[in-house]
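Reopening: EamA domain-containing protein still failing for me.
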Amino acid sequence: MTQVDNENLLETDQSLQNQRKIVEANGIIFMACSSFAYSINSLFVKLGSKYFSSFFIVLGRSVFQLGFGIAVSLYLGIPVFGPRHLRKWLWLRGTLGCLGLALYYYSITVLPLADATTLFFTGPMFTSVAASVLLGEPFEKLDFIGLSLCLVGVTLLSKPTWLVGVDNSLHLTAEEAYKRTIGVSAAILGEIMASLAYLTVRKLGTKVHFLNHVTYLGICSSIFSFIMSVKLDQLVPLGFTKSTFILLTIGITACTGQCLLNSGLQIAPMGPGSLMRNLDVVFAFIFGITIFHEIPDFYSIAGALLIVGCAVSIGLRKILRSKA
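Support: Ran it again with your exact input. Result attached.
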């Protein structure tokens, strides 16, 4: 091989490395933009709670998402309802996802935005526990320590009355304290449902297109939220109003976040990509302070740091395991 050939090979390798770096950088940008889209979604859910119930907000998002999933699937020639032999798993994924979504949106309406978002980020801990029980994945001593610290963070964010100084800092009535307890419980239970839904996504893997997940979540959420809205007499007529714009924005940002997240997961390096997801919490604190004037106290900040720290550590440990 001549010197010219060697130089050409080196240039080709360098070009491929540069292209890979560009692709990975785009993946990280997609993940960051996904976090921003989801945080905008949560922001408008909070704004929309002045006009609609949480079930009606879920209904508005779900109808938009269902239409989006079906339309794009037909355009791309993807089977709308996925492979026949996997549909029971898709129905399960949609059911778990819709329960998680309804509970999370309810928590946003009754809790400070930052608290609800941070509590929802307990997901990696619940997912690792569920994966250990259901999929036989390893759960080691460090995972147990992380789970314990995460639970401490949840306790701080929950602000139970037996914590020193909570009564003095919150000034809550009995009814407000009860609503906060229900909101915290809804956020945690919602994340457990979302974690189980994520496990079904992992089980299905690449056997189904991600748009099938979008469609089934839209179907299940539309049915569930419509039934609940009718039963609780929470259906609201829509017109060309500010509230309708808020509802439309919730649907658009949800679909945008899902598309960016799935695209980013495919091309972003695991480490930086997983860290970008934690930007949701940062944006939630910013929006909570600047728009809703929800100033976080010591308990919220300490709890958020513990929960996000545990989520990051779990992501890093998974990366190290995959490289071992």
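The mean pLDDT is 83. If you still see a failure, please send the error message rather than a screenshot.
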